[in-house]
Amino acid sequence: MRGFSRAMALLAGVAFVVPALADEGMWTFDNFPAAKMRAKYGWAPDAAWLKHAQLSSIRLAQGCSASLVSPDGLVMTNHHCARECLSELSDAKHDYIANGFYAATAADEKKCPALEANQLVDITDVTAQVEAATAGKSDRAFHEAERTAKAAIESKCGTGADVRCQVVTLYEGGVYDLYKYKRYQDIRAVFAPEQSIAFFGGDPDNFTFPRYDLDTAFVRVFDHDKPLHSDTFLKFATKGVRDGDIAFTSGNPGATERDDTLAELAFQRDDAQPLLITLFSELRGVLNEFATKGPEEDRTSTTMRFLIENTLKAYKGRQSALVQGSLVTDKAQAETAFRKRVAADPKLSAAYGGAWDAVAAAVAHNRDIYIRNGLLERLSQRLSPLLGQVVALNRYAAEAGKPDGQRLEEYSDANFPALKQELVSPAPIYSELEKTTLAWWLTKVREYLGTSDPDVRALMGKKSPGEIADALVDGTRLKDAKFRAQLLAGGPKAIDAYHDSLIDFARKLDVPARAVRADYENNVKAVITKNAALIAKARFALEGKSSYPDATFTLRLSYGTVAGYQENGRTIAPVTNFAGAYAHATGRDPFKLPATWLRAEKDVAMDTNLDFVSTNDIIGGNSGSPVIGRDGEAIGLIFDGNIQSLGGDFGYDGSVNRAVAVDVTAITEALRKIYHADRLAGELAR
Amino acid sequence: MRGFSRAMALLAGVAFVVPALADEGMWTFDNFPAAKMRAKYGWAPDAAWLKHAQLSSIRLAQGCSASLVSPDGLVMTNHHCARECLSELSDAKHDYIANGFYAATAADEKKCPALEANQLVDITDVTAQVEAATAGKSDRAFHEAERTAKAAIESKCGTGADVRCQVVTLYEGGVYDLYKYKRYQDIRAVFAPEQSIAFFGGDPDNFTFPRYDLDTAFVRVFDHDKPLHSDTFLKFATKGVRDGDIAFTSGNPGATERDDTLAELAFQRDDAQPLLITLFSELRGVLNEFATKGPEEDRTSTTMRFLIENTLKAYKGRQSALVQGSLVTDKAQAETAFRKRVAADPKLSAAYGGAWDAVAAAVAHNRDIYIRNGLLERLSQRLSPLLGQVVALNRYAAEAGKPDGQRLEEYSDANFPALKQELVSPAPIYSELEKTTLAWWLTKVREYLGTSDPDVRALMGKKSPGEIADALVDGTRLKDAKFRAQLLAGGPKAIDAYHDSLIDFARKLDVPARAVRADYENNVKAVITKNAALIAKARFALEGKSSYPDATFTLRLSYGTVAGYQENGRTIAPVTNFAGAYAHATGRDPFKLPATWLRAEKDVAMDTNLDFVSTNDIIGGNSGSPVIGRDGEAIGLIFDGNIQSLGGDFGYDGSVNRAVAVDVTAITEALRKIYHADRLAGELAR
User: Fold this and answer.
1) Would the CB atoms of B270 and A324 count as touching at under 8 Å?
2) What residue ranges define each of the domains in chain B, with the CATH number in brackets?
């Protein structure tokens, strides 16, 4: 599944631009290669088409894509993108994940505790302003100057509940663009099918094709407590796709590393990826066994298990591409050849020739601090939502009083509203799950940093991980969202004056976590950003801006066609239908059709398209992207890529790399014949 | 910990001989490099010394080393080598793992359900006989001829309850030696301390130094129901070791791959090790969470969790050596240089020049079948002891009627007595643990082989892994050891006539499991054996037999000295004492001293040696090896290696590679002052 979690963003990297081939490319809307597409397909979209697609596209700030599909703020995305919301709205009596959700009337639509929708309205090049601020600076000074310049630009553009402005670093720092979004935080659940059909085939079928999934959900954007009115939206196509149809995806690919240097790829292959696969495999085992303890443990851990399984499979696919494929040797050859061209020009050589070695030195430093940074700063807050909230609360007290540009990035005026929404989210805290993941995390801290590490001793004293985790969760009032909101509203003084087991622990953790984060930001990230930008400029100098930048969880357009592929000597047909879903059902998880589907078997038109694959170049974060046809209608809904697409982080292979989507006609058929969701189906037909 | 499990042996490999450096070398007793040792140390053992060490050494067939330490069959080994026995003797009322075990009188000594002790009495070169049988053969024909020749030699040498004869393949097939052992199957527990001191520091301290562990156990060999009388045994030293003391280890290193070709090393690095680390990490998570379900789940899973954690740490160390160290590039250079020397000689080139490419082709085939072989044949039987027993029972029915040389190797006359002992072992079967590991294994089978694989469909049908596992364990009478023994005694007809859920499942599994095993044995193992032998012969031709063969879980002697080392800029002193153990105790697992130690704190001489490190070249399987001083006394008991030794599978680095041992004076001090085990201490002082 193509969601984009922060855990995956841990691996985002850096450095040079590859010429686009075939249908390759995650293009920014201000640099779409219309001439190239026209040369291949005899047609390309015009400016009006592009504007319509852009304004119909929605980013879900928590890591997915989506689209407006009615004039009344109706938004289509994946079930797995609305899953956290559904889980948070559920309780021991209502399991909206297992049983689905449908608001039969407008009044039944339920507010998602922590969803934020962004609509991209404007792009402005601000490269000159940022470069003026960072000129001549290195390391920490470079990092701080860049942060301050970005914050100033964002602040001037606008900030608050209705607008989100972000300076986006593109082409590894070769370009800085200001992206201005409308921000919406009142998002309400409208419809979701049962998990068993949204994720039919489960983990075994994840990242494969053929598929038979209705990975679909609808939510509605509210603006000042009323459904958002929008003249721009994607109409639903009434005919299913066919082999060879032109297909666009408009969405927010999370992160790719196609421009990374060889040193960065080797670090991923030899260090980062193996560590993450090891850690997530163990956690997968812990959580799957936790789920066998009882129905409540099963229910409360479903979302996290889903996230872990999905992330792990993606990591394995990436690693396989790095180890088994030709990516690393291809990169080595391309980098050697390009460095020779730079070295041959004295002017380019003087300006850019040292950049690769500087990146390699930063990578070597990252190797030394990677585990500490991962365990103390990055993973800690993701593994325990509760700890994440309390760390954020405590940090807010320290960051709020600083100038915007000097704060940790997520506390900037542009970013804090989204974090604040998570911080005060009324989503339930599952104490037993929290204790389990916290205890496991502490065990890993002790294992990897060592029992004699001073930070480990300070954090853990003589207690066992299990004792500490129990005391942290049982001894805090911060499980209560209202209490967190009250402290936050009280400001830094109120927060600083409050003590309990968990916030005091967060304060203790903050010391080594901030230290290693600063080390990373100043001595790894800043060095790589600066030098990768030099490499990008060398590329611009020799080849112009003929390519697309690495993915940055910002809006991109990809073009391609509906097309099958070859696998193990077999031809995989590009489209499945309802008959296939019924044929593949076994009655057992994860191949069990829901009762609604079994009851409706006689009513459904079996030859209706269900899922399809296309050559679109997508990556995690594209989940929920609309697939748009030549005439600007929604023809599909991206929810996955095939196994072969997982190497897409590092390169695109048009012969087998495929995006996987639900056909919109399947959605219409299911809403009418299976779910009898006439209010929703009617709205989609307008 | 330096035990040697079959799971670790999965990785055993093949191919060329490296010149010995420093104290490197796991020498066979018939080729000890006395001249080399004398050149370095001014002294070397004579033939009488060697014979005494050899006959005092004991191999525990399940994967450890040990030694005779009294004239009455008393055997010293590690706590972790006796752990399975202690676990099997325990029940809900007696936890000999947690609380230790001591037979205060001879009558209190308890029979271990499944321990076999072997004493090596004779070595004979049989290379010519095996080579005569395999001459001119390849692949399957080579494999069968080799098996038949070995079985015939073993059978002629002797077989049965009292003797074990094994033809050992040394120098990757360059040499075949017949090893003749006395076999003992009546082994009784005498003494073991509490787990908390045997494994003080637990997983966090495993494979590190300094250490404070009393990883010691004593068992007694019985012969025809009486303690074995032996004139040859190691007397306990009465003085603790000192920095620089000469130290030998005599034990059974399990498997090394120092002579592997580059293709085999790359396969380990890129395929085998990453897969095993991923699988074992997930299983570790499952079992650690299983243990939190209750005290009974904790107790019953302790031994398996220990095995998994230990194995996983070893895999990680090996992989780190392959990825971060210079082993692979060193091997590439050495192999290229040696192949050039072979190519330069037309006669050698014609005879041996094609061997490396033949090995590489076999490795490529292994890459295709490795996961299937691992899941269906190798791991299945190790993850579930019950399934392992039932597979063995079912296979015995098929193999018993075949000629010795045509049977699967573990059913040969030489090997079956050890397997039979496991098969009928009265050790308790833990149903909930069995269900958990079986369900997990089935999930992995489905995940890795795929839901549409015909073997997966045949094994699993439409049921879920959990349902299948429950039905297998609940629906079988074969949990009862007496019933297994009865069926076995009834022979093939009785076994074939018996049906229940589990044995019928084992029959279904047998079809694909045998198929992939045969593919591996004929098309991977036989090809590598044959060609690695050619490489070894090229080595003999150019360099003579100046080195030692890769480890094969047969008796080897290593020489070296007690010596510290440098780590992260610090000097690690070579010896710890009792004072250090008390200083490092926190009162919490895994740094909690047992009550006996806390009570005796005033009585113990705090400056008594506890653990020490030496330069001896050891590997998994050496656990329990005696450390022998210059005068032939036991001075220590190997129980581990440091982290730096884990790359020892692929090469030895004398500057940091260290063996970790308990000083025998610590054992004496603890027996007298802490455990008041006077009967045992008195026997050791004779």
Assistant:
1) yes
2) 6-257+545-684 (2.40.10.120), 345-543 (no CATH)
